[in-house]
């Protein structure tokens, strides 16, 4: 981590301290009378979500920038501001791993482009001062429909890894999914999150290992096991390979090659005998595997990576409790299909029987509204929170989530929706 951005003094990232500094600045200013400073203090303390039009008040933005990159989370105008800082902070191979899609990254781009074909229909003269963004999933109320997608190996992005993410998710109650190949153990993540997290499962080709992983996650309190089904075919991550060529470090100093070494570094495999395992991704998994898994999962079983109506229907026939429409953020197949584009066919096939979540390219509050209007129950974000993590640790993740939530609340109001149920097919039209 570079000295320019790190160490990160608490003063630079704590919003309360930023507000105080701003007030000190204005108190000393001849342009504002003392009464105005008092009014400003009230405004700044009122917080974003209750503030309506003030949520984008220029005075809320930290006024100073040093150079092209933001130097503190409070300076970010949108989630993209974190990406370039993450790029600067990370070794090229780690940034390449995060950024990469597959082949020419066309599906990665398609995920973003898909949102441009959907327009939002603004509604007027509705009292939207108070809005409620909560959603109910599996009988549990989430404060926000914006959840954190499972992202592997977060120690590659920040030393505090998933623990920093869990602490950030806790602040405003964002749900979180932990990867099998995360850098942190589920017990620690749940402790930091202050609530159960879902566990994302990569099945190995040794059933005993799969069983042990599920048992451990459920014992820790995970209410849902998320089986990722889109990594069975292998992949060509060219952007990663290209970036890695420019990395002068010796990768094998930290990563011993070979599958067994890879998993044995991951805390979720601690105490599990992985001797018979030869693969984590291409395991020849079929629907029989889903049936077998259904038999051992006590809580909810979720499939992540479904992108067709056929597979959605088959999943329901196998007793699956929810789907996540996903192409792994353009990191699985180079299909050129955006997830927002295939969402309607999956939603139609499911026909309200189970929740349908979605991820892939969500970068704006408007993207979230579009997905909910097309029938998604909630959305997950991947890379944006990792940009925040890599750039500034926990405060960076918090800022990314706050920006997405603030943007989402703003567009909800503009679409005339005071609660999630009021975001409907009539909230959008398709170009
Ligand atoms: C660096 C990285 C690692 C990922 N690791 C996993 C993983 O371990 N398991 C999984 O199901 N998905 C994984 N994903 C995919 C995400 O869960 C999610 O589907 C994707 O990031 C969403 O797209 P977005 O990054 O455009 O938001 C990973 C994504 C990235 C960028």
TrEMBL record:
Transmembrane segments: none annotated. PROSITE patterns: FMN_HYDROXY_ACID_DH_2 (PS51349). The keyword Oxidoreductase applies. The keyword Ubl conjugation does not apply. Residues 71-431 form the FMN hydroxy acid dehydrogenase domain. Its cofactor is FMN. Keywords: Flavoprotein, FMN, Oxidoreductase. InterPro entries: Aldolase_TIM (IPR013785), Alpha-hydoxy_acid_DH_FMN (IPR012133), FMN-dep_DH (IPR000262), FMN_HAD (IPR037396). Belongs to the FMN-dependent alpha-hydroxy acid dehydrogenase family. This is 4-hydroxymandelate oxidase. It comes from Methylobacterium cerastii. The gene is hmo.
């Amino acid at each position: 981590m570079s000295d320019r951005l790190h160490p990160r003094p608490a003063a630079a990232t704590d919003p309360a301290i930023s507000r105080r500094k701003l007030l000190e600045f204005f108190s000393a200013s001849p342009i504002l009378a003392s009464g105005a400073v008092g009014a400003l203090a009230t405004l700044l303390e009122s917080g974003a979500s209750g503030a309506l039009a003030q949520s984008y008040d220029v005075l809320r933005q930290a006024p100073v920038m040093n150079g092209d990159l933001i130097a503190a989370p409070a300076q970010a105008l949108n989630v993209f501001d974190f990406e370039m800082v993450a790029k600067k902070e990370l070794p090229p191979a780690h940034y390449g791993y995060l950024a990469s899609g597959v082949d020419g990254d066309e599906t990665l781009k398609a995920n973003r482009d898909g949102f441009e074909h959907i327009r939002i229909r603004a509604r007027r003269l509705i009292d939207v001062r108070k809005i409620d963004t909560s959603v109910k999933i599996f009988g549990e109320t989430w404060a926000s429909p914006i959840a954190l997608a499972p992202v592997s190996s977060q120690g590659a992005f920040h030393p505090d890894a998933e623990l920093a993410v869990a602490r950030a998710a806790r602040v405003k109650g964002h749900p979180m999914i932990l990867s099998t190949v995360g850098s942190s153990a589920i017990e620690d993540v749940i402790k930091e999150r202050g609530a159960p997290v879902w566990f994302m499962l990569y099945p190995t080709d040794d059933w005993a290992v799969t069983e042990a992983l599920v048992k451990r996650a459920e014992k820790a309190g995970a209410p849902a096991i998320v089986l990722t089904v889109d990594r069975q075919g292998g992949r060509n991550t060219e952007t990663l390979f290209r970036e890695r060529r420019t990395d002068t470090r010796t990768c094998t100093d930290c990563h011993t090659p070979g599958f067994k070494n890879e998993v044995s570094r991951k805390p979720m495999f601690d105490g599990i005998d992985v001797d018979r395992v030869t693969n984590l991704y291409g395991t020849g998994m079929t629907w029989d595997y889903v049936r077998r898994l259904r038999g051992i999962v006590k809580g909810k079983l979720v499939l992540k990576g479904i992108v067709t109506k056929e597979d959605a229907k088959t999943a329901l026939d196998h007793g699956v409790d929810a789907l996540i429409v996903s192409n792994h953020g353009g990191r699985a197949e180079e299909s050129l299909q955006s997830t927002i584009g295939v969402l309607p066919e999956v939603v139609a096939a499911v026909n309200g029987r189970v929740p349908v979540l979605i991820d892939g390219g969500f970068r704006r509050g408007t993207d979230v509204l579009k997905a909910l209007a097309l029938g998604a129950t909630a959305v997950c974000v991947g890379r944006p929170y990792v940009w925040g993590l890599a750039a500034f640790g926990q405060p960076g993740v918090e800022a990314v989530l706050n920006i997405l939530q603030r943007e989402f609340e703003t567009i909800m109001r503009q679409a005339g929706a005071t609660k999630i149920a009021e975001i409907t097919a009539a909230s959008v039209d398709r170009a």
